[in-house]
Amino acid sequence: MKKLSAIVLFLCLAAILFAAGTQEATSLPAAWEAQGTPLADVRIRQALRLAIDMETIVDELFEGMAQRAVAMTSPGSWLADGLDPYSYDPEKAKALLDEAGWPADYTLDVVYYYGDQQTVDLMAIIQQYWATVGVKSSFRKLEGDLAAQLWVPPADRKNGPSEVKWDLAYAAVAALSENEFYDRFESTASNNSSIPWQSGLDEKVQATRATADVEQQKVAFKALQKEINANMYNIPLYHQLSFIYTSDALDIAGSTLGNDQFSFEKNILDWRINRADGTLYTNGGPMEFYEAPTVNPGLYLYQELLFDKLVNADANLTPAEGMLAKNYSVSPDGMQITFELRDDVKWHDGRAFSAKDVVFTLEYLIKTPGLNAVALNTFKSLAGAKEYLDGKASSISGIKVNGNTVTLTFSTLDPNALLTFSQWPILPSHLLAGSNPVTLQQNSFWQKPVGTGPFKVSQTVLGNYAILERNAAYYRSGNGNVKKIFMHASGENDSNLVKNAESGRIDYAWSKSVADAQSIGAIDGMTVNPVNIRYTRVFWVNQYPHPANIK
Amino acid sequence: MVLVAIAAVTNTRGGRFMIPFIIRKVLVLIPMLFVISFLIFLGIELMPGDAVDFMIPPDALATISQADLDLLRAELGLDDPFLVRYGTWIAQVVKGDFGYSLQSGVSVRDLLAQKLPATIELSLAALVISTLLGSLLGVVSALNKGRLGDHVLTVAGMIGVAIPQFLFGLVMIVLVVFQMELLPVGGRMTPGNEAFFQRLDHLILPATVLGLSMTAGVMRYSRASMLDSLSKEFIRTARSKGIPEWRVNLIHGLRVAMTPVAVLIGFRLPILIGGSVVIEQVFQWPGVGQMFVAAVRSQNTPVIMMIAFFSVSIVLVASILVDIATALLDPRVKLS
Amino acid sequence: MDRLLTLENQGKLKTSTMNRSVRKLSANMLALVGLALFLLILTASIAAPLISSYEPNAIDLKHRLSPPGETHLLGTDQIGRDIFTRILYGGRISMFVGLGSAIGAALIGVSLGTYAGYTRGVLDSAVMKLSEIMMSFPQIILVSILVTIAGQSLWNLILIFILTGWPSMYRMTRSQMLSIREQEYIQALQAFGIGSFTISFKHMLPNAIGPIFVNITLSTAMFILQEAALSFLGLGVPLEQATWGNILNVAQDLNILRNAWWVWLPVGVVITLFVMSVNFIGDGLRDAADPTQVG
User: Fold this and answer.
1) According to the model, what pLDDT value does residue A26 have?
2) What residues of chain C lie within 8 A of the CB of A117, using their CB?
3) Which of A61, A128, A499 lies nearest to residue C254, judging by beta carbons?
């Protein structure tokens, strides 16, 4: 027995020693300790971009289901012409690195916060591309308080030193309006932790917010894009597409499919479903609660179906026609919006909808933490909003009600005001008044939400499914036959989507996952519709002076 | 088991010794629960970040003001000092208030009331399947000792234990659900079919996959037990009396099947509560395991505390019951 | 009788020069098969650079998801890495986690159990209470909480496994010690005034070593399976490191599960075979060390 145990022990030790030998050797100490950072040199940033073969990655890893990005903005009328695509050129990358004097022993500290396999694979691929041109890198996933680790700006916006520790951060920006892509480049932005003040940059960013005229906005954005592109202030990687999955049993009556992260008119009342019981299957049902439309106004289908907005958006997310407001008008200078509300709208519990609900919603949501920045900006731009938030006034003076007409007066121009009202719905004052807006999500209202929308909650089994039924008292009717909507419970990332689609239990769903699109594309009876959305993945490059994080 | 305990207590001969024994065991349980709950609470405290960090999707974090989020933290009581929060939690639990989920505000008691039956149903079904199958296969294996059948079953049992559970579950889904289209793909029930026998088809696959990994253990135990009793004297007596072989085997097969029930259930029930986590994820089963993983990922302290607390309590109570049963059955165990 | 004595003196009665335990072990077919498999997988992983010319992390996007063929023995994964190589290198980490945690847990549990089991007293009750507390947690619940606290990394996982694994080793060693300490030769040693450390570690432990080794093998198997399960839940070793659990994780993608069987099936088979072989060895050791079995 003793001999046997000795042999076994020896084998174990051998195994441990060999495995230990596979651990990474520690890096050499970096030589750029207190000299700012090599990333402040534009040539280095350009080289990093040139070294990545984004075309091959898009073609192979994403199987063509993504778009290479040359700027934050997706291709279309908002994107400038003639931007440098920085196509894959490892030789030029090496030349630039040599010219700029890249320290060979520096290891880039790259952080990310997504845990999925595709992100990890992408990071491994990029690591290999950089290694080929002589840049060492190491990737790590962030945990815990992400905002504190990623987006804290330095005290001195011009000279730093940096408040954050990383060299590059892999992040995504999901933008409702183009502003959301570029506001961050301003040196006064509260989330700009990586781009120091540059001469002329702030002015270009402000120019994009200075007018409500769409054509002038486009000119301003394009000028800004050219500036960013020439200087590579961040490294845009690719635009993520959204995929909408429809089954053959569903006929969407000619509606256009659009960016389902947000709210847009789907004409669901006209949809026809080829099922005897008129049930449409989807996912996104509540796991533990119905999500309040604060951060995301239309991420979940039920947010659009249970609630109405003042104004309706079309598939391009452009405010198109009235919804709860039968008429609306914007003054020429954009500082005043008038909504004439419908008088035939009822909440799901029978109570009548009125202007009181509109006023309540605005004054309530403005105090909800986690409200999307676009909406918050709109509400805060209302006249008297500041006094209301400071507690000096009991209501927002810029909101005036006259019978069924609500007039909003702004103290600062918000070019996206109408966009906000076409996304964020009106909440019932008779059910939420008096509750604490800070803990809105924790309110029991969200176990059985009541709205004015075309569908209402019929049955909920948390974590399993929820059923919505057609609202017979809705002020509009359609010639569709969808009587019920069955929602499989899921979070934003639904790991069971493909299985459910395979079993014929998904008629309408969407996701941003390429793997889902590939799998569902192979299913008979399901169609994958790719949609361009404003969702760009980038590397933020920390150009403030900071020591090398990896020694 | 409870009936046995009650019978023992009312039995005057051993009764007087049992009550102090049971009371002592229970009294030791309470401080242990305190220590355990403190450790878990401390553990959650040490996790990086807090629940509010998980309420906002990370992509949107860049545009949300930290001051607003701190307001939310204050409202949810998350910035009170650690001991204050722990004390509050203990005070609530003692009163029967299990707290409210930080994410949704739903009371944890309601959440458990919804999800616990699902997990118990799954666990019990798996227990039944593994006990029946394991005992049967063990008896068969013992009867075929040394021959091919025995070896095949032993190896099959080994394989059952060695396959990673989620892989087996996924393969089963592909085979049974997609290719053979026999059973539904997941979830616990469909609307309109909430009665037990109507949702049995949802239960079969997850319970079988969960039960299969336990079958091997039961099989080995019942095989050993069967072999043991087959070699006893009275078997030879029965055989020499001319009782047919099949009757001898049947009677002993039944006795063997009964014996593991008490022991194995008592020892395995606690393991099942934690063991269903993976299966619940694979089969979309809305149970406690699924809730627990989501709660740990989002640092939903009240939910984590209650689930951990409950599972630990079940384990401890089960061990006390086993202690009592052993004390009753085995007179050699000292009660003092 | 004289004939027997003569044979005995001539040394002809000894059936074999081998140790009795080793003899019993070799008679157990399954255990031998297990040992062979175990050694095969272990050696293959250790000798990985000799067996395969590919690097485990070498990406080749143009040849992603290619089926097994001449250039890639087991095909490539979703970003073009050679699967055979990754299984070999991943095995190092997985086996390291499994064996390392089991041995670590054994070192702590057995040392505590030996000394405390012999001396009894305050140390014994305190550690006993501690082990009871730790064992009352369902394993996965405790491990999930600990992984979230400490962060996901290879070493953290090993430490967590050791932390959750030592109580059962402790209890088992302790119960062995409790029965051994009543034996007469121990009392004789005590009468001689030999110290507790020496008695417990030098004299008592070797007699209990059988079940301890059995436990180590069974724990190894359990830890390897746990690593795979944690990876599935998203709480395992960080995805960039190749471990068997991480490679298997991609099976969650139904596309890969159904169309690219070579990505997950070989790994699944290897894990199953390895765990099975370890269990066979454990069973064999248990039978070999059991004096009640004829051998």
Assistant:
1) 43
2) 78, 239, 249-250, 253
3) A499
Q: Write B26-31 long-range contacts (CB < 8 A, 24+).
A: B26/B320, B29/B316, B29/B317, B29/B320
* Inter-chain CB proximity B290 and A463 less than 8 Å: yes
Rounded Cα gap, residues A433 and A451, in angstroms: 14
CA pseudo-torsion sign A341, A345, A346, A351? positive
* Cα–Cα distance for residue pair A7/A242, rounded to 1 Å: 58
Q: What is the pLDDT of residue B336?
A: 42
Structural domains present in chain C: 44-49+73-289 (1.10.3720.10)
User: CA-CA distance, A461 to A240, in Å (whole number)?
Assistant: 33
Maximum separation of any 2 CA atoms in chain A, in Å = 96
Question: Hey, is the C-beta of C259 within 8 angstroms of any chain B C-beta?
Answer: no
> In whole angstroms, what is the distance from residue B236 CA to residue B243 CA?
10
Per the listing, tokens 């009396």 go with B241
Q: Name the minimum distance, in Å, from the CA of A427 to any CA of chain B.
A: 18
Asked if C89 lies within 8 A of A22 by C-beta distance, the reply is yes
**Side chain identity, residue B320:** I
Q: Which residue has the tokens 């995929």?
A: A243
Would you state the pLDDT for residue B12? 47
Mode of pairing for the β-strands spanning A168-174 and A107-112: parallel
| CA distance linking residue B127 with residue B122, whole number of Å | 9
Chains with ≥3 Cβ pairs under 8 A against C? A, B
Evaluate whether C110 touches C173 at the Cβ level (below 8 Å): yes
Instruction: Provide the 10 A C-beta neighbour count for residue B21.
Output: 18
For residue A248, give every residue at least 6 positions away whose Cβ sits within 8 Å of its Cβ, in sequence order, or none: A274, A525, A526, A527
Tens-place pLDDT, residues B4-50 = 655 555 554 455 667 777 788 778 888 888 888 888 888 888 888 78
Q: Which of A242-251, C20-29, C165-174 has the lowest mean pLDDT?
A: C20-29
Average pLDDT over residues C118-127: 84
User: What pTM, to 2 d.p., does this model score?
Assistant: 0.82
Separation CA C244–CA A352 (nearest Å): 60
What are the tokens at C179? 């029965």
> Is the sign of the CA dihedral A250, A254, A259, A265 positive or negative?
negative
Q: Per-residue DSSP letters for A329-393?
A: EE-TTSSEEEEEE-SS-B-TTSPBP-HHHHHHHHHHHTT-TT--HHHHHHHHTBTTHHHHHHTS-
Only one residue has tokens 């395995």, namely B268
Which of C21, C99, C100 has its CB closest to that of A4? Answer: C21
Which of these, A225, A219, A217, lies nearest to A83 by C-alpha position? Answer: A225
Cβ atoms within 10 A of the Cβ of C8, count? 11
- The full DSSP string for C225-277 is HHHHHHHHHT-SS-TTS--HHHHHHGGGSHHHHHH-HHHHHHHHHHHHHHHHH
Q: What is the pLDDT of residues B151-188, one digit of tens each?
A: 888 888 888 888 888 888 888 888 888 778 778 777 77
Q: How many Cβ pairs within 8 Å bridge chains B and C?
A: 117
- Segment C49-57 shows an average pLDDT of 86
Contact A436, A409 (CB under 8 A): no
Whole-angstrom Cα distance, residue C156 to residue C162?
10
Among the partner-chain residues C79, C103, C213, the one whose CB lies closest to the CB of A121 is C79
- Contact across the interface for A498 and C103, Cβ inside 8 Å: no
Closest CA to A229 of A193, A209, A204: A204
Q: Which two tokens stand for residue C98?
A: 């499994």
Among residues C95, C101, C99, C106, the alpha carbon closest in space to that of C212 is found at: C106
What is the β-pairing status of strands A484-489 and A250-251?
unpaired
Q: What is the mean pLDDT of residues A453-464?
A: 91
How many beta carbons lie within 10 A of that of residue C169, not counting itself? 27
Q: Which residue has the tokens 């395969």?
A: C52
